[in-house]
């Protein structure tokens, strides 16, 4: 009788300790899975694929996860991936465990279009507004010609014109240098390499002057004809670049802008490209039409009237003004 009583005492004591340990572990586990206080959403970047354990330890240190070990245990039980893929994620303190794993399964991708014809400053603002990189950092990176050398391109001065216009997928807070490198690599892949500065400069003028694909080579031919005759190019687009503004210019204003990019005041091509041309404009600059036209004027339907003499040009201007006036009345 005394032996059985003594044995029961030990068994009950061990069971009590095990139960207490189990309860304690459960409490630790529950506390560890409690969401942290709700905080502001932010981007968290993993430069390379990272073990889930290491990722959770980092997130615990940043106040997003309450307890890395408890969260990892849930991941194992529920069959979550054992690593976090490289990328940038939108996370915030206060996420539930399920919400955290959902967020870590979807890297944030920002799809940004950099339009044809835009110059560096305009593209910089779009990238900043899209959350890719700061405008100032982009402008600084775009002034670094060593990046062109890395991409196998020959570029002097600014990278203006060689930052290929396209639709890109970037992560939030991508270093501006990486954005520029991506654009340069795209230029090389779609255009080619070598000393293309003159071609790209003419193409950038064509891009902003030609609204219709059918007229790109024709306008490139006008530019070449005027260069051969040592005439000023008289292109509004170059003045807009000098101003770094895209707007309607009032009559006579073009001759008041003092800049080497003002093709009303300076003969020959501007010092360099005035924006990022499309492949179509680059091809037009490489293969301009052969004709005798020296002038053109825009019409409301976005086409142009071309002329070989100034007298013909004046008549075309009158025709175009009538068309614009008629359009204004409708």
Layout: helices, strands, pairs:
Elements: H1 2-32, E1 42-46, E2 50-51, H2 52-61, H3 68-77, E3 83-84, E4 87-91, H4 97-103, E5 110-113, H5 120-129, H6 135-141, H7 146-150, E6 167-170, H8 176-190, H9 197-209, H10 216-228, H11 236-243, H12 279-286, E7 295-298, E8 304-307, H13 310-329
Antiparallel strand pairs: 1-4, 2-3, 5-6, 7-8
Helix pairs in contact: 1-3, 2-3, 5-6, 6-8, 9-10, 9-12, 10-12
Tell me about the biggest sheet?
2 strands, antiparallel
Structural class estimated from helices and strands: mainly alpha
Work out the strand percent: 5-15%
Instruction: Work out the helix count.
Output: 13
User: What's the total count of β strands?
Assistant: 8
* Helix proportion: 40-55%
Q: Tell me, what's the shape?
A: elongated
Low-confidence stretches: 1-5, 17-22
Q: Output the radius of gyration.
A: 32 Å
**Strand order in space, largest sheet:** 1-4
End-to-end separation in angstroms reads: 113 Å
Average per-residue pLDDT, rounded, comes to: 89
Compressed to H and E, one letter per element, the order equals HEEHHEEHEHHHEHHHHHEEH
